[in-house]
Amino acid sequence: MLQTEMSSRAPRTTAAVRAVALRKTYGRGDAAVTALHGVDLGFAAGDFTAIMGPSGSGKSTLMHCLAGLDDVSSGQVFLGEQELSGLSDAALTRLRRERIGFVFQSFNLLPVLSAQENILLPLSLAGRTPDPAWFADVTARLGLTDRLRHRPSELSGGQQQRVAVARALLPRPDVVFADEPTGNLDSRVGAEVLSLLRSSVREFGQTVVMVTHDPVAAAYADRVVLLADGRLAGELHRPTGDEIIDALRTLGG
């Protein structure tokens, strides 16, 4: 059932990432467009949350602000107890590298590197040495053990996305942000990747925040947050695909 009354923010002790009175405006004067209108929202640690809404609802903008990829116009974003808006560019880059994982629709793998080198890249950039046991565990669970020496061009789309998921999980980030992670995959491979994200929450205690337009993909989440016109419009808990479709229909999505 769609809940239109939402708590204003998650408790500090359990929120992996949260927005407080978050507002984002693009442009100035008569050309100004407000993408987010004072959003208050928390994402619990160890949960899988999907963000959904009609085109132009602000879902991608919200994710980009939460992940420190975009500045906010006003309000605050916290990763744990660390406020992002107070960080220098260098500190923000370091935080994204060390505490946030990303999985994108386009995979974003470097073609000249092997799968293993792509997976290790964030740790290499941070000057950190990977835990061999953790690396072996993650790549084995993702079915990549025998593909680590292959370059992206030698991998299927599903295998490339598995590499991207492994790259996101390996640094043990506070949050993994997934932006339409199945958008370039067929339904079978997409279901496989979503199951892997679901497993990372269940087995590794990972926090995952995913933007998607697909009700089938969103049904893998513990919680679906709905946006409309840059404002929170409700949320669903452990919904079915049909329940998500009904909720989106009420929003015109």
UniProtKB/TrEMBL annotation:
It holds the Pfam family ABC_tran. GO terms for molecular function: ATP binding. It comes from the Bacteria. Residues 17-252 form the ABC transporter domain. Keywords: ATP-binding, Nucleotide-binding, Transport. InterPro entries: AAA+_ATPase, ABC_transporter-like_ATP-bd, ABC_transporter-like_CS, ABC_transpr_LolD-like, MacB-like_ATP-bd, P-loop_NTPase. This is ABC transporter ATP-binding protein.
